Amino acid sequence: MVVSGTLPHRGARKLLRRLGRGVRRPLSGEEGMSTAEYAIGTLAAAAFAALLYTVVTSDAVTEALSSLVRRALSEPSFGGGS
Predict the structure, then answer these.
(1) How many domains does the structure of the chain reveal?
(2) Matching InterPro entries, A to Z (predicted)?
(3) CB neighbours of 61 closer than 8 A, spacing ≥ 6?
(4) Do 8 and 40 share a domain, yes or no?
(5) 46 and 24 in one domain?
(6) pLDDT at 67 (0 to 100)
(7) Predicted local distance difference test score (pLDDT) of residue 22
(8) What residues contact residue 41 under an 8 Å CB cut-off, 6+ apart?
(9) Predicted TM-score of the model (pTM)
(10) What are the mean pLDDT values of the chain's consecutive 10-residue runs (82 residues total)?
(11) Residue range(s) defining the domain that contains residue 62
(12) Which residues of 16-54 are buried (b: 16+ CB within 10 A; e: fewer)?
């Protein structure tokens, strides 16, 4: 079907271009983070990782985890059938 002298695929291309612009416009605003925000976020993540590493490798936590593993390995297994 020909509408006002254009082929159907040309009209479809125009429609797709318009839809594409409508999708891109909201994303091109102030969405996402700027470079400075990425830097601050990365710094905060690194600080949290350092804190978590310090806590997990402390003597108290290491001993608690070791004790938990020793206790789990010394318990008889469930459902062994004997």
Answers:
(1) 2
(2) DUF4244 (IPR025338)
(3) 55
(4) no
(5) no
(6) 95
(7) 62
(8) 33
(9) 0.44
(10) 57 74 58 84 96 94 94 78 52
(11) 33-76
(12) eeeeeeeeeeeeeeeeeeeeeeeeeeeeeeeeeeeeeee
The CA distance from 8 to 6, in Å, is 6
H-only helix segments in the chain: 8-27, 35-56, 59-74
Q: In the Cβ-directed half-sphere of 23, how many Cα atoms lie within 13 Å? A: 6
Q: Which residues contact 48 (CB under 8 A, 6 or more apart)?
A: none
- Could you tell me if residue 81 is inside a domain? no
- Residue 15: what pLDDT? 72
Q: What is the pLDDT of residue 12?
A: 74
What was the pLDDT predicted at 23? 55
Does 61 lie in the same domain as 37?
A: yes
